[in-house]
Amino acid sequence: MAATYKERLAEVSAALADPTRREIMDYVSASGTPISVREVAQAFGLHANAARLHLDKLVKGGLLRVVRMRGKRGGRPASLYLPADEELELHLPPRHYRLLAEILVEALCATGEETWERLRDHSYWRGRQEGMNASSPLARVSPRAEAEEVARAWGDDLEKRGLRTRVRLLERGIIEATFLACPFGEVSKRYPGRLCSVHRGLEEGVLSLAGRWTVERGEQDCVFLARKDEASQGRDR
Amino acid sequence: MAATYKERLAEVSAALADPTRREIMDYVSASGTPISVREVAQAFGLHANAARLHLDKLVKGGLLRVVRMRGKRGGRPASLYLPADEELELHLPPRHYRLLAEILVEALCATGEETWERLRDHSYWRGRQEGMNASSPLARVSPRAEAEEVARAWGDDLEKRGLRTRVRLLERGIIEATFLACPFGEVSKRYPGRLCSVHRGLEEGVLSLAGRWTVERGEQDCVFLARKDEASQGRDR
């Protein structure tokens, strides 16, 4: 990786400037397992050399990393590609929001539980406001719409926000959203579980544009279950 | 500006992939006044058409904006370029740290003053730790070094962190650092003055690698004055 911010900016933008390369990056990031040059070549209809060139540029830009593995039948070790460990953060002008968020969480950890409870409420209102400002697809859904329609609009909203998510409809109108990457990434990793309620509050706020939905934790932290809050239709939050 | 995260990523990386374009962006950002095509062409030894092409790509990428102004002698209005109002934030995988920081500041504002005082302490230690992890040039400066040397190393450290700053030595060994862009940008704008002590704490922490320095507010929020804390050499912080 390059040493200064300027050098990093140069390498990252060079890596990302090609549309095929961006597609390859998405492909590798979404796969969940290390990917070989051959797989990329096949998936994108490229010659192996071209695929390798793209992959190596993504490695140079710090977006992917490479591991070398010997196959079962021996021979030359093959290069396998997977997402970089380090996340990439680029701001213009340069900003250090992640650092700020970490310092703030640390300070909040030293305060009482009631601060954390307040946080979820703040998050709800903020999510609702963000959804309105960004003209969320959820704002175009009627409060009486079927869960299926809400699920689709939520999925579109999440994609618009750049969040990698799998949204599906379960039985009894429950919508399940699985976040493949946490929007609060490294900060959340440092303070496990602490920020999940902030995230859930945010999503509840965004969903509130399409009626009254409650968002609960699913089987894991990054799986949310949204269900329509029929009882509280008339109640003020 | 493009609507989705993916489209934005495409436009931004296209805008930034060219080294001359990155230089032009820096040039316009640093100038402080709107810049004409002709000025850019002269500064970079380019034909006016080439300069305009670069500038327009930067506008398309959301990095600069353009205003049209009629000159004193009438005639066609000229295009002048200046930094975009909206800051650019790019994360891979997508992260929403700015939003998180805003929600956290909001929650902290509802707590007592003592939380904010604790924040400065957190920031000091975090700055010190960051400086060590990043092998800051300040860590290679002897605690007995002249202020001039510390100023130089601090400037190098700030540049490495991508922060646009002017560092100079005043009389009596006081170092003045002027931040041309706040590392906490939009969050700081939303809560004016609140985060300056966090930033000062961070810089004090980084500077502590080169001895004991106190960082105070200069004439404005974004001007810091660092002076060697002679009295407290032996004292534990």
Describe the protein's architecture and organization:
Two copies of one chain form a homodimer. By secondary structure, the first copy, chain A, is of the alpha+beta class. Chain A has two domains: 5-83, Arc Repressor Mutant, subunit A (Orthogonal Bundle), CATH 1.10.10; 97-228, Muramoyl-pentapeptide Carboxypeptidase, domain 2, CATH 3.30.1380. Chain A is 47% helix and 17% strand. Chain A is built from nine helices and eight strands. The first copy, chain A, has helices at residues 5-16, 19-31, 37-44, 48-60, 97-109, 113-133, 147-160, 185-190, 196-207; strands spanning 35-36, 64-69, 78-83, 88-92, 165-169, 175-179, 213-217, 223-228. In chain A, the strands form two sheets. The first copy, chain A, has a four-stranded antiparallel beta sheet with strand order 5-6-8-7, with helices on one face. In chain A, strands 1-3-2 form a three-stranded antiparallel beta sheet. In chain A, strand 5 and strand 6 (175-179) form a beta hairpin. In chain A, helix 3 (37-44) packs across helix 4 (48-60). The N and C termini of chain A lie far apart (48 Å). Residues 232-237 of chain A have low confidence and may be disordered. Chains A and B meet through helix 1, helix 2, strand 4, helix 5 and helix 6 of A and helix 1, helix 2, strand 4, helix 5 and helix 6 of B.
